[in-house]
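User: I'm writing a tutorial on reading structure tokens. Could you give me a worked example: one chain, its sequence, then its tokens, then a sentence or two explaining what the tokens reveal?
Assistant: Sure. Here is the example chain.
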Amino acid sequence: PRTTVSMLLFSLLAATAAPSSWATAGVEQLHRQYGAIFGPYGNNRNAASHLWSQFILDRSSSMPAAQVDALFAGFCAVSGSPVRPSDYNRYRMRLPLANGTGAVMGYMHFCCWPCVCDTHDFIRVDSKAVQTANGEVRFHFAVIGDPCAREHELDAKFVQPFSMRVTTLRNEAPAVRCVKGMLEGAPRSDSGHVIIGIVHNVERVSEEGISIASPQRGRITTADDGTVFQDEAEYSQACHQRELAGHNSGMGEIFRHVANISPVDSAGAAPQPVPRIQ
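And here are its predicted structure tokens:
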């Protein structure tokens, strides 16, 4: 999606001085830095959540570990949209580890439900040790492969399903920019993958996915510890219908194309290619 009025407003808010200390800053203060983060790219944040991630990690040494974790809830890993985290945009995901040693379950905050589908299809989990005010802490991050491994794919033509326009990633996601074969401004996980977000409250699970007999999109569940969330399994049918409709919701094909250029293959096979125009 193209830059909207709301995104321009975030850019204007960036004129506000950064907080004197990020140790206690909330997601609102993070959002006020939108223009500083995305201004060099025409204020376009499409599929550019790696830039949010780098901004936070550059300041992590002055924050308690809990604050680092909290700020990562302030944007959508898929779209790059600013997010105001709440019980109703918290989703429980089961995702494979990037190193192929199993799967984990944890929470992510999204801007909209179609991001559940894209996350399930393309995002993997990898760790990274981060210097915080509490010392070095290892977090579990949402990662994708580096699209700049095949930079020419940024100029491949595809159809955005909203308007049926023929376009390219170079046009739709200008912040996905390559420098010497690597994604500009992208932090790296322990295995060298591109960090685009965090997975909260991670625990190991024996299987990647579960099924629900009668999935219901939007149904709220409460965990034993009181955490309120929506489970990804509630969206199995909705994701299938979205696929049949050409991914005509959420980010459309933008993130899917970026993530599919050089997918992290932890399950023995890459995701199915998204259609391109030759």
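What the tokens reveal: The longest helix spans residues 5-13. The two ends are 23 Å apart (CA to CA).
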